[in-house]
Amino acid sequence: MDTFDLERRHGDHLHFANIKFGWITLAASAGYLAVAALVHTLYLRGKTRYIGTWLYGLVLAVLWLILVTAAPEGYSTHFSVALKRTARVAYAMIPLSVALAWRLPPLNYLGRLRVHKWAGWIMTASTTFHGVGFLFKWYVADELGAKLAQWRNLAGVAILLVQWALVVVSVFNLTGYTAWYWIHNAMVLVFTLITILHAQPGVVWLGIIACVFIVIQYATHWTGVSVAEVSVLAHPGSSLVVARIPTPKPVANAGVGQHIRLASRWYLPSHPYTVAHSDASAIELVVSRTKFDVTHAVTMRGAYRSEFPQLVGASAVTVCCGGSGLSMALSVLAYFPEARVIWCVKSVSDLHVLAKVTSPPPKDQLAVYITQKGTAAGGSPPAASATPGTPGTPDGGADDDESAALMMDDLDDGPIYIEKSALNYGRPQWSQLLTPETASVVVGCGPASLVDDVGDVSRHQGLQFVAEPYQM
User: Fold this and answer.
1) Is the pTM of this model over 0.85?
2) Mind listing the pLDDT tens digit for each residue in 265-293?
3) Dist. CA 395–CA 415, nearest whole Å
4) Which of 35-39, 72-76, 361-365, 413-417 reaches the highest mean pLDDT?
5) How far apart are CA 440 and CA 414, in angstroms?
6) Are residues 420 and 404 in contact, defined by beta-carbon separation less than 8 angstroms?
7) Domain 225-304 in CATH: superfamily?
8) Which contacts (CB < 8 Å, 24+ apart) does range 80-84 have?
9) Of the CATH numbers 3.40.50.80, 3.40.50.1010, 3.90.1300.10, 3.40.50.150, which one belongs to the domain with range 309-374+415-469?
């Protein structure tokens, strides 16, 4: 009887060589999250300790490199084994990437969100290597047309195009945040579901786990407390407003720099706002008029912890803030009552905020810098142009306490009394204000240019510097 050697449909046992690496990646992801949480909880309790996002991202990249290069059985003779390994590892990283983006109050999610971006780039690089590698392999073997005629492979090309469409939209800022939010979420679903149809061997169970994590993410993003109409306290000529949000129940205190997220509808993306003051009935914010248009019923989520370190026993805290950054300053004052506040505003009209907030800074701990030339209360021009950093009247001359108060007495809430020496015109000279003799810890909040300038001076002076820009 004649005998025949039958070639296996998928070549040999190497077809299944990478299945275990999907589960190993899931286990490694759980270990990564556990270790990161442990490090954050135990090591970062000190007041001067800080681990940059780049280090978390670097550890993640090294972990990925180990997973795609470990036990390279068949790599030398079967290039497709390596290509499939990278894709499977990337797909198994979906739960990790999604978990890094979870917003579970009162936990701090800001640092994890930046590591989430690292995970996204690593996954994109993996799937790109997989897709382009197979296209090249088929082209060299003169099989490109035949392979692309198979619907599974065509689905793989669709996944690659979807991923790079998201990269282009994100890198080149082609849409507003709301549009990007929906595009990003839709493409994550497309990648997760179509890969189940595309992958060989199958990834059904990995896909189910990924979908469970995505459902949890949507649940945390789309649930919140519905609140009544927001009360907005404004003043003519000012770019700042005080917003008071009634809450049906007290919001848990999440510490210094805590923030809430507001959305005009439960299904729309939310935006973060630092809490200036909160009590049993309301939350108070200081916000920019141009960036805050939620004046009807809203959905509120939080409060969430900030990345503000635990400054146990800190002394001589100075908060340098600009505009709506006063919210952070008021939050810091609640925990460090002796903190000094240096507040930069565009016009005298912005000082109405001090009369409207529940707990303004003590007048002997506050210095105000009015940076826009040619403005006074109500937007009218002062008698002369401002002299940078000069206390008193706009022309730099002396004035008494009564005159300093009268300059702001057209405010609805009555006159605001500010120490004559604390009222300045022009931009602050940070190198003179931030010295080891006057501060040991400096907090920067407000426009990026202000935070950068304050940070540069603080580091040059050997002072501890804390900043928390919301880049979400």
Assistant:
1) no
2) 878 888 889 999 988 888 999 998 877 76
3) 21
4) 361-365
5) 36
6) yes
7) Translation factors (2.40.30.10)
8) 80/134, 80/137, 81/14, 81/17, 81/18, 82/133, 83/129, 83/130, 83/133, 83/134, 83/137, 84/18, 84/130
9) 3.40.50.80
